[in-house]
Amino acid sequence: MDSLKDNFKPLIDQFKLSTQHILVCRKDGIPLMTHNIDNSDGRGALVAGAWQAIEAVLESNQNREMRLSFDSTESGVYILPLDEELNFYSVMIFENIMNPGQLKNQFRLFRDELRTHLTVLAEDINDNKVLFENITDEEIDTLFSF
Amino acid sequence: MSFINHQKKEINCKIVYYGPGLGGKTTNIQYVYQKTSGDSKSDIVTLNTDNERTLFFDFLPLDLGEIRGFRTRFHLYTVPGQVFYEASRKLILRGVDGIIFVADSQVEKMEANIESFKSLENNLTEQGYDIENIPLVLQWNKRDLPNTCPEEELERRLNKYDSPTFSSRAITGEGVFETLKMMSKLVLMNLKSGL
Asked: Does the reported pTM lie above 0.90?
């Protein structure tokens, strides 16, 4: 996870994407990293939902080369899977761009580079120990004391 | 599929409200939204049809306090209740950590409750979940209406896995947080430790 996060911002700069809106989220919609994006929780949920809805429309398991684009000639959203198992999505929202094709190509290169830092994250998810042995009602009440 | 970040001391969990159409799933999370405040409050995302029925899902990210040093975030989803939207319900169950089944207590809704519960069982099985091993809480909603089934009958016909149950009137908030707190406790105690 550190490797992915440590390299996120430098890669955005390296691929000249710093003025775009970028999100990396899990397939259940939980955002992992954002750049220039507010309400990343809501966006993550919608991105994951949109991707999986399109998969369902196609009625097939897609591979990592699939991409989802909803755009005009200058603005839109572009979603790419980050890993082969489709556990993570990388998303770019762009506005008023003269050459979206070139920008998308940059984003694909950014995604490819970011993907090389995914190994640690994939391994980390497979730990099966229980985190909390017992939780009391008082602890839950405290959790909900808005 | 919960997400635990040990370095940031952060837990993310996905909870889905499931149940028949017009049973009160959206009302539950709207009440939670109304009652949360300050830093806990995020925007609620709703994808509705023209007549205010849930089309794809409602979504509410809920930032809670800390438990044993971990900042806790719950992502609350509702599924569309109408029978027509079975494909959407399947999608929304992906990665779920816990399910709140909102049953409509009205006598004439019993068959819809049973049908929806069967759909939940089937959809979980299709996605590789074992319903007996996933946190599940049942909520008997609309207990204020005059034509409700006795709770014993709801228990007998719907509570096949001996899950915790709560009576509610989601429209007034009665039972809403009690249900969510129980679900939260079950989910947190079911968490695996991953990074």
From this structure: no
